[in-house]
Automatic annotation (TrEMBL):
The keyword DNA-binding does not apply. InterPro entries: Aquaporin-like (IPR023271), Aquaporin_transptr (IPR034294), MIP (IPR000425). This is Aquaporin. It is a multi-pass membrane protein. Keywords: Membrane, Transmembrane, Transmembrane helix, Transport. Belongs to the MIP/aquaporin (TC 1.A.8) family. The chain crosses the membrane at residues 20-43, 55-75. The keyword Transport applies. It is found in: Membrane. One of its GO terms (molecular function) is water channel activity.
Length: 284
């Protein structure tokens, strides 16, 4: 009898070495690209009016983050599961959809990828001697309290709810085999049709529209880490870990309630097939 997760579906087994290496490399590459293009949008489009974010700037940056995660999840779901977010990896590991060894390897890869992406962005936006940098955000899109009226409680709350939305969307569209985003036979991507990356990207977009004027919007601790390292911006950095991780765990706990899925455990269990985290039924 297989070891089961909270929702009575089998937990992911120990990953093979080749499988783990391929997934870990995919997460590194995806996070590098995500930070460069996501934070790059902030660096090139940040605009303020009387000390507040310009709504058009917020929309452009939010859309870029949403589109970037959609593209990268589609690009990596068959190799790594398309986490591209330490908070997502945490939630999937706790829920049993990602083996702890895989989760730890992905976390390290994401951290290194974030630093790499931020370093490339720093080099790309660095001005000539005596000239101005191209980075309009001033810190490679690093997160921070966006105005004097925002306090730490506000920041944690916004990050919690934004990440809750993202993680809940991941669990109910990508993990849940009964989701309208799958073909009804398998949970996410793999060899079956799935549009789960689209609502995931929309969730990221929605969260950014709301959170950018407050925190710059993290909802992804590893997205925040690289720019902080490269730009040496550490003010209130703990917020970008506590809020997103708590939001991810909150969504994961809600997903385990009896109301989360109408199908009995015996029916739901057939949707899992020795998968890699939440991207399941993949070949190779």
């Amino acid at each position: 009898m297989p070891i089961v997760a909270f929702d009575a579906t089998p937990r992911e087994p120990m990953p093979g070495r080749r499988d783990l290496l391929r997934g870990t490399l995919s997460e590194f590459v995806a996070m590098t690209l995500f930070v460069f293009f996501g934070c790059g949008a902030a660096a090139s489009n940040a605009h303020f009016s009387d000390g507040d974010w310009d709504p058009a700037s917020v929309t452009v940056i939010a859309l870029q983050f949403g589109l970037a995660i959609t593209v990268l999840v589609y690009a990596t779901a068959h190799t790594s599961g398309g986490h591209v977010n330490a908070a997502v990896t945490l939630g999937l590991t706790v829920s049993g959809k990602c083996h702890p060894i895989r989760g730890a390897a992905y976390f390290i890869a994401q951290m290194l990828g974030s630093i790499a992406g931020a370093a490339i962005l720093k080099g790309a936006t660095h001005g000539d001697a005596g000239g101005e940098d191209l980075d309009r955000s001033g810190s490679l899109g690093s997160n921070g309290l966006q105005n004097a009226s925002v306090n730490l409680h506000n920041a944690v709350a916004f990050e919690f709810v934004g990440t809750f939305l993202l993680m809940y969307t991941v669990l109910e569209t990508a993990v849940n085999g009964q989701s309208l985003c799958t073909d009804g036979e398998s949970s996410i991507l793999g060899n079956k049709l799935s549009i789960a990356p689209l609502p995931i990207g929309l969730a990221v977009f929605i969260a950014h529209v709301v959170c950018i004027p407050v925190t710059g919007c993290s909802i992804n601790p590893t997205r925040s880490f690289g720019p902080a390292v490269v730009s040496n911006t550490w003010d209130d950095h703990w917020v970008w870990w506590v809020g997103p991780c708590a939001g991810s765990l909150g969504a994961t706990m809600v997903r385990q309630t009896p109301l989360s899925d109408s199908a009995p455990p015996s029916e739901r269990a057939v949707n899992i097939n020795s998968g890699r985290s939440w991207s399941i039924n993949r070949s190779g």
